[in-house]
Amino acid sequence: MKRIFFSIFLSIAMIAACAKDDLPEQSVILPGYSEQMAKERLSESDMQPLEGIWYYPEENMTFTIERWQQQPSHKIGYRLILIASDDLELIPGTVIGYIEESAVDNKFHMWLYSERNKVTLIGPLDCVATLNKDATSLTFVPPHWEVKVRANFARFLPSIFRAVSVVPSVEEEKLPIGFKKVFPADGNGNKFNKVRYL
Questions:
Q1: Are 135 and 183 within 8 A, CB to CB?
Q2: DSSP of 150-171, one letter per residue?
Q3: Domain-wise residue ranges, the chain
Q4: Residue 146 has pLDDT above 50, yes or no
Q5: In terms of pTM, does the model score above 0.85?
Q6: CA distances from 155 to 24, 56, 149 (A)
Q7: How confident is the model over 85-108, as pLDDT tens digits?
Q8: Which residues make Cβ contacts (< 8 Å) with residue 87, sequence separation at least 6?
Q9: Fewer beta carbons within 10 Å, N or C terminal of the chain?
């Protein structure tokens, strides 16, 4: 029985390690990235329900989720690219995270960079994100770990991880937070999988 549990644990660990290998440890900045550019790229593609322009109320931040594949064996299928933020130190075009599909259609493995290193972001932290039925919101639950304030108040992204360090002791359940889709939406672009006439 112990061997079975050990085998299952080892398999899960290996799958997680493979995904982690694909994940860039440091963000990149795409020069000249803008909302207009994002809308044009999205409108010209066969958009998936997860793709679009999203708003993150907790950070007052707007960003794009678009398909991304670095190499044929790459497992991470989407990246989050900043368009605008109240944090003026964040440059538009900064990749702020990545998303990987799972075996469940509306569940995704999401990584968000959690710490600033000069002009780039580092320290991707992961969580499970859930896309609602009409693909207008993407929610996730902060990690269920106890957090404590650090003495060194570095700037962090997103706010759920700001100025905290995570220690591995389970805490009470937290309410989900998330993103709201702003494009495409009714009156603001085309719905998914509809034919676009020129």
A1: no
A2: -SS----SSGGGTTEEEEEEE-
A3: 2-183
A4: no
A5: no
A6: 20, 17, 13
A7: 998 889 999 999 999 999 999 999
A8: 59, 61, 155, 157
A9: C
